[in-house]
Design brief:
Layout: H1 13-80, H2 86-124, H3 127-148, H4 151-158, H5 162-168
Helix pairs in contact: 1-2, 1-3, 3-4
C-alpha cells in the first residue's frame, strides 16, 4: 500500500508578505471608508444648514411680500378714506397694526438668521485644524504599520507625535 503525499506550497517570500499586504489593504480600505463616512456626514450637515437657510430666506421673502401688499392696501385705503367713513378708518388702523407686526417679525427673522450664521461659523472654525491633525495621524498610522509589520508598529502608530498632542490640547510644546 503506497501513500501518496500531497504537495504543499513552499513558504517563499510571496506567502510571507501576503499577510502584511492584506493588512495594508484592509487598513487602507477601512481608512478610506472612515474618510468617506466623515465626508458624507459633513456634507449632510452642510446641506441641512443650507436647507434651513433657504427655508428662512423663503419665509423672509413671504413676509416682505405680505409687507408690501399691506403697504399698498394702506395707501389705497388712505386715498379712498378721505370721505371720513368710520369703517374705513378702522380698517386702515388694523392694516397699519398688521404692518408694524410684520415689520417686527421681519426684523426678528433677520437677527435670528445672522445669529445662526455666526454660530455655524464659530462651531466649524476650531474643528478644522483638529480634523486635519487627526487625518495626518491616521495616515501616519497606516504608514508605520505598513513599514514595520509588527505589533511594535501598531503601538508606535497609536501614539501621535507630541507636536500634534500639544496642538490638540492647545498647549505650547515644551522644549
Amino acid at each position: 500500500m503506497s501513500v501518496k503525499r500531497q504537495s504543499r506550497p513552499s513558504h517563499g517570500s510571496d506567502t510571507r508578505s501576503s499577510p502584511s499586504v492584506c493588512c495594508y489593504q484592509n487598513a487602507s480600505k477601512n481608512s478610506s471608508l472612515e474618510l468617506a463616512s466623515m465626508n458624507n456626514k459633513r456634507w449632510t450637515k452642510k446641506s441641512k444648514s443650507w436647507l434651513n437657510i433657504r427655508r428662512q430666506r423663503d419665509q423672509k421673502q413671504a413676509i416682505e411680500l405680505e409687507f408690501e401688499q399691506l403697504k399698498g392696501e394702506l395707501n389705497v385705503n388712505k386715498h379712498m378714506g378721505s370721505d371720513g367713513d368710520a369703517e374705513i378708518v378702522k380698517e386702515v388702523e388694523e392694516i397699519y397694526k398688521g404692518l408694524t407686526e410684520k415689520e417686527e417679525e421681519l426684523a426678528d427673522l433677520d437677527k435670528f438668521n445672522q445669529t445662526l450664521i455666526l454660530r455655524e461659523r464659530r462651531t466649524n472654525y476650531p474643528t478644522d485644524p483638529i480634523r486635519t491633525g487627526l487625518l495626518y495621524a491616521l495616515k501616519l498610522n497606516i504608514n508605520v504599520e505598513m513599514k514595520s509589520n509588527t505589533q511594535n508598529g501598531t503601538e508606535q502608530s497609536s501614539n501621535p507625535p507630541t507636536r500634534w498632542q500639544h496642538q490638540i490640547n492647545f498647549e505650547e510644546p515644551k522644549q
